[in-house]
Amino acid sequence: MVDTLSEENIIGYFKNKSILITGSTGFLGKILVEKILRVQPDVKKIYLPVRAVDAAAAKHRVETEVVGKELFGLLREKHGDRFQSFIWEKIVPLAGDVMREDFGVDSETLRELRVTQELDVIVNGAATTNFYERYDVALDVNVMGVKHMCNFAKKCPNLKVLLHVSTVRGG
User: Fold this and answer.
1) What is the pLDDT of residue 101?
2) 118, part of any domain
3) Considering the domain boundaries, does residue 5 fall inside one?
4) What residues does the Thioester reductase (TE) domain cover (predicted)?
């Protein structure tokens, strides 16, 4: 018997799952974060590696560039005064950079948060979409970032899904 892919199956799949999403400050990334939190509030954790010098700066970036956006209005309405606590129960900002091994997240933080042990899903949406970017910058983000993501995924014994989103320019 073939299990059909349905909205209910997808929503149910994320229940009690831990997800790492790169590119969360970008257009598709923040939409994905909001959608998961809205349709499956029982997601366990959503780890968001973002370029930042430390944990406080990472949290600030996620606050201002992701959850602080109007896109999260329905969630704000739904949770009211509990919105902030709901968000920070689910979202874990990580100071890092996809151009570095382990997303640039220090090994102590990864061990302390048990990120590699808990991850069920990785969604790699980090990329430069500037088609006039310098070659070395585009290569670092769009190629080396993917290599680092694959190496990181190998360290996650419970990983079930690895999704890579890429940009293509039509000609």
Assistant:
1) 87
2) yes
3) no
4) 21-167
